[in-house]
Every structure is written in structure tokens, then in C-alpha cells.
């Protein structure tokens, strides 16, 4: 079982591991840590740029609903296409970042209007979590074993199934999902989801490290950066949800 990110559990990603196993290797055309880091920062900048667009539109009194939902849909499509066509990642990854940014900006503006100051708290919590997980992984405090991977993936799939089933039921009935509202149970669920999202970061780090060790092709830097961005976006959204629940209890 592999990472929750669709980028890291596809046949295409695994097959790419042997692309550069030839005797003569051009290391300028293989995946590197610096290259992946640089592309991750670039995607982050593009995502923030997209978020600023819808954020400013809302603050100016416009309704960017089409951009918000359109960004979410296009971002999802980019993720699905890249998962099957990793070689297209140099084009899909920047597009994903921009369109996902449109979605994030709209969602963030909505939460900020309801709970002033929540966005900066969620951003701070996301990056603090990221760097803590990175440090724990770098210094091997947390090691990604097959058992660790299996537990995290199983928990992630359970969360996805729960969210999907709850959403489908709520469409046709008056059912109120347990994770809605600001009850202690709902807050506990959000904390659990955040923990699982954070654990997915370890799987992402591990897959990127393996990709570099296996001398995967250069375009996999975009692939790895895009996958990491997917997890960070998920983590950020979950922090927004948790903080909003806590604030609504005050």
C-alpha cells in the first residue's frame, strides 16, 4: 500500500523507477532533492497567487463562485491526469497550483469572514506541522515501514469513505454528519483527520526520497512536488475546519 497521494501509488510512478538504469546516466536529467524543493516552492507561489485572486474579488464585493468551484474541478482533473501521465507533470503541476489556489482563496475568504484571523492561524499550523514532520523524518525519529504505510493508508481510505458516504446521505435526507457542528465529537474527528493528513507527509517524503535514490527522470520532480502540494492543501483545509469549530464554541 502506498501514499494517499494518487501520484505516489500509481503504476506509472513505479515504472519510472527503472527509466534511468542504463549504464551511462545523465545526472542532469534525473530527479534531485534541490530540483524537487525548488519546484515545490514555485507551486506554492502559484497557489498563493491563485488564492489572492479570489480572495481580493470577494473583498471587493464580487462573487467568484464559478472560479472557486471551477478551480476545484480543474485541480482535481489535473491530479487524476497526472496520476496516469506523470510525464505531463511539468505542465499539469503549475496548472493545478493556480486553479487549486482559486479554490483555496475562496474557501479561505469565507472562513476569514466568519472567524477573523483564522486563515493566518491555519497557515501557521500547516507549516509548523510540515516542518515538524520533515525534521522527524530527516532525523529518522519516524521511519516509514510497510506496517506504518499500511496503517496510514487504511486510515486515509476510511476517512475518504466516511466523508463520501456522509455527503451522499446528506444530499437525500436530513442526516447531519457527526463531523459537522462544533461538538466535542466533531472536534475530535477533525483532530484525528489532521493527524492522518500529517502522517501522509511522511509517506510523501519517503516516496520522494526513493525517487531520487532510484534516479527517476527529471519530470518526476514536478510530479513529487505536485503530490506534496496535494497533502498540504488537505492539511490546510482540515486546520481551517478544526479552528472554525473551536472558535464557534467560544
UniProtKB/TrEMBL annotation:
Annotated keywords: Membrane, Transmembrane, Transmembrane helix
Keyword Zinc-finger: no
InterPro entries attached to this UniProt entry: BaxI_1-like (IPR010539)
Superkingdom of the organism of origin: Bacteria
Transmembrane segments: 41-58, 64-84, 91-111, 117-139, 151-172, 184-203, 219-237
Keyword Transferase: no
Protein's name according to its UniProt entry: Uncharacterized membrane protein, YccA/Bax inhibitor family
Organism: Flavobacterium fontis
